[in-house]
Structures are given as structure tokens and as C-alpha cells.
Amino acid sequence: MAHVGRHAHYYDVTRHMRDIHVKSLRETYRLAHEPESMRRLADVYWLFIVCIGTLAMLGSVGYGMWLLFVPPSREVSEAVVGSGRTSGFDKAELQKAVQELQKRQDEFNAMMTN
After folding, report:
1. Nearest alpha-carbon partner for 55 in 47, 66, 43
2. Domain boundaries defined on the chain
3. Is the C-alpha dihedral spanning 36, 40, 41, 45 positive or negative?
4. 37 phi-psi bin (left φ>0, alpha ψ -120 to 50, beta other)
């Protein structure tokens, strides 16, 4: 029976997908050398591939959302921020560093004027 109407093409697309049953699939696999069976096996194959791809995509999106919204654990936040304090410069070390930089700047200015 031909379907008539605005969405008649949907029936042709989904007709083969609705007719997939385990018993008929066994019979189809047994008769895999026939063109009609090859079409049905191809439909089952692509249905399987699309379902696996969809599940993989949904799984990866779900895992990404989980990583995005779950707060990091205490160990991770300490590792990122740093838990140990670094010792600061004392006044003598800072003064020595400033003198060395001043000396290098004077040498640079002397080279630029020559």
C-alpha cells in the first residue's frame, strides 16, 4: 500500500528499520547472498554504527560536562596553586641584584654612545 501525503517519504525510509526482528534477521543472515537480504543486513549494520556513534558522542559530551561542573578535589587545587611558600629575598640580596642591574644598564648605555 502506497502512502500518500506530505510525509510519505518517511515511511519508505523507516520501513526497513521497523521490520528488523531477531527471527527475520537470522533468516536474512542465512540468505546473505541474495540482494534483498544484503539490503536488510546493510540497514542493520548502519543502524548499529549510528547507535554506537551516538552513544560515543553522548558519552563524551556527558564526560566533558561532568568535568566542567564537578569541582576539583583538594589535592588538585593544592597542586595547581602550590602548597609550599618560597623564601623571599632579604634586603642585602635585593640591593645586590639592583646594583648588578644598574651596572649592566651603565655598560649598555656606554656601548650605545660609542
Report:
1. 47
2. 8-84
3. positive
4. alpha
Query: How many other C-beta atoms are found inside a 10 Å radius of the C-beta of residue 90?
Result: 8
Condensed to tens digits (0 to 9), the pLDDT of residues 14-35 reads: 555 555 565 677 777 777 777 7
* 3-class secondary-structure state, position 94: helix
Whole-number pLDDT of residue 10: 58
C-alpha grid cell for residue 67? 568535568
Alpha-helix residue ranges (DSSP H) falling in the chain:
8-18, 22-30, 35-69, 74-81, 91-113
CA atoms within 13 A of residue 19's CA, in its CB half-sphere: 15
Share of the chain above pLDDT 90, in %: 34
C-alpha cell at 37: 537480504
Locus of grid cell 654612545: 113
Average pLDDT of the residues in 52-70: 95
Give the distance, in angstroms, between the CA of residue 70 and the centroid of all CA atoms in the same chain: 17
Better-scored residue on pLDDT, 36 or 113:
113
